[in-house]
Amino acid sequence: TRLPGEAESFALRLDLTGGRMRLSGLVPDAETGERLAGLAGDVSSGRVDTDFRLAPGAAPAGWEVMVTETIRALGELDAGAGLVTRDRAALTGLAPSSAAARDVRRMFETAPDGFAAAALVRADGESYEASLSDPRLCELLIKGALGRRPIAFAPGRSILTGESRAALRRAGEVYAACVEAGDLIIAVRADEPGDEGASLALMRGEAAAGAMAEAGVERARFLAQAAPLGAPEAIQFTLTPVSVPDLATTDTEEEQG
Fold it and tell me: Which of 100, 145, 214, 241 could form a disulfide with 174 if both were Cys (CB 3.0 to 4.6 A apart)?
């Protein structure tokens, strides 16, 4: 079963945790999947899991090259996540040293034609040395930093589990490098219909925003929303450009006033 638009996105997720690499998402054919799995095994001492689904049609030009570079970059990290779509690639994670972090960032400085790519990686105790302004790329980075497990709340409450709070703080650290891309809308799906469901969803969105803001981002940069009961995702993060006042309009209004 595919979500609407999933095949068009050609999205593939790559995770490295505890020395084990996992690849999940869409590939154009079984042969491509085997090549990617083989490379992942080479860089992770054979510890690799795959969950591939076949997408109709050929992959975009440069897609396999971008995935290959992402696998190799992940192999240089202690832990991390990469996401590759039909036109973007994002990598975030922890490197064993400052030098290793620099090397991985360099690997993403040159992407195939038609691709935008960014690597937010750092050594433990350091900060990300980047400032990004591509909203869609930053959304991928945030998704990667959140990890594979869904954000969880106490049943019927807006209290985050400890694991989810830690994941949101990691995502907040990523967003701190992406504030130029816009404000962040956090939409949480209601568990039940009606005002009570919407109210709880909104409070959960506020709690998620608070956890991300703990990473040092101004709380005003977040907007919590309640998504309807039938929304496709339990929680969604969307960047929206910050509106810039029209100077000509502003000047005219001041003159009229």
Answer: 145
Instruction: Look up tokens 């900060």; give the residue.
Output: 127
Instruction: For residue 131, give the nearest of 178, 181, 183, 94 by alpha carbon.
Output: 178
Inter-residue contact 221 to 177 (CB < 8 Å): no
Determine the residue type at 44.
Answer: S
| pTM over the 0.85 mark | yes
Of 129, 131, 134, 101, which is closest to residue 117 (Cα–Cα)?
134
> Each residue of 104-133: pLDDT tens digit?
999 999 999 999 999 999 999 998 878 999
What is the CB neighbour count within 10 angstroms for residue 35?
15
In angstroms, the CA 256 to CA 6 distance is 51
CB 37 within 8 A of CB 51: no
Q: How confident is the model at residue 55, as a pLDDT? A: 87
Question: Residue 94: is its pLDDT beyond 60?
Answer: yes
Task: Please enumerate in sequence order all residues whose Cβ is within 8 A of that of 14, keeping only pairs 6 or more positions apart, or say none.
Answer: 21, 22, 23, 40, 67, 70, 71, 74, 81, 82, 83, 84
* Contact (CB, 8 A) for 108 and 130: no
Question: pLDDT, tens digit, for every residue of 14-46?
Answer: 999 999 999 999 999 999 999 999 999 999 999
DSSP secondary structure of 93-148: EEESSHHHHHHHHHHTTS--TT-EEEEEEEETT---------HHHHHHHHHHHH-S
Distance (Å, rounded) from C-alpha 3 to C-alpha 15?
21
